[in-house]
Structures are given as structure tokens and as C-alpha cells.
Specification:
It is built from three helices and six strands, in the order βββαβααββ. By secondary structure, it is of the alpha+beta class.
Length: 139
């Protein structure tokens, strides 16, 4: 796999906190929508930011289980039940993001939805990653 690279059309300003596009070669991993629950499927908090952090941690856990890391994430689609709650917590959301994904900013989209399948969930995050080549283990 090549290292993912950010794509910005000529003349466009550099985006802050996301990429307009990401390109990479390698095995693709589609990560299902992850919500803010733990390994026992318990919502970690009724609050938005802890749910956001846990959903990101869950995305990274799936990517790591497939042999990648946060730097291999190409795109995130973030579904929220209340965009005002998201916007009102941008500083905390940004800190949680950097704590989990560092300063890697894939292509992103934020969508407000009426509800999520789990009633207590406030955020769901879906991802696409390009995994690094796996070195075959000697027999």
C-alpha cells in the first residue's frame, strides 16, 4: 500500500481538519458504522463527546484488527442526531479526534440524521481505510 495522500484541487485553499480527497493503493477495509459503546455494547455516556471519542476508538480498533492504524483511514462519514450539539462541542470533539487519530485528517462528511438504530446513540462513524501490505510470516 502506498501512504495515503491528501488531494486538493489546484487553487483551492488547504482544508482545515479534513482532506478534500484521499488517495492510496492497497487492500480496502470498509468499517461499519461504529457508535459510542464499549466491547460489551454499553453506551459509554449519555453525553455527545464521550460517545464521539468511543465511536472513533471503535473505528480504529477495527482498522488495527485488520493490520492498519489511524494513518490508514481514508474517509470518515459521521452521522449525528443533533448538529448543534456537535458544533457546540467542537473544541472537545477536536481534542478527542486528535487523541484518537492524531493529526491525520482523511476525507470527511458530517450528516445529521433523525435517529440512529440504538436509541441512546448520538453519533455513528463509518470509515474506509487502505491497509498496508502484510509481510508474509515465514513457514
Amino acid at each position: 500500500m502506498t501512504t495515503p495522500r491528501s488531494i486538493t484541487p489546484p487553487g483551492w485553499p488547504r482544508p482545515r481538519g479534513y482532506s478534500n480527497g484521499m488517495a492510496a493503493r492497497g487492500e480496502l477495509l470498509a468499517v461499519a458504522g461504529m457508535i459510542g459503546w464499549d466491547a460489551q455494547e454499553r453506551i459509554v455516556s449519555p453525553e455527545f463527546v464521550p460517545q464521539f471519542r468511543q465511536a472513533l476508538e471503535n473505528v480504529v480498533a477495527v482498522v488495527r484488527a485488520a493490520g492498519g492504524g489511524p494513518e490508514h483511514v481514508l474517509s470518515l462519514t459521521i452521522f449525528v442526531t443533533d448538529k448543534r450539539e456537535y458544533l457546540g462541542a467542537l473544541a472537545e470533539v477536536g481534542q478527542a479526534y486528535r487523541d484518537v487519530l492524531g493529526r491525520h485528517y482523511p476525507a470527511m462528511a458530517l450528516v445529521q440524521v433523525v435517529a440512529l438504530v440504538e436509541d441512546a446513540a448520538k453519533v455513528e462513524i463509518q470509515a474506509l481505510a487502505a491497509l498496508p501490505e502484510q509481510t508474509p510470516t515465514p513457514s
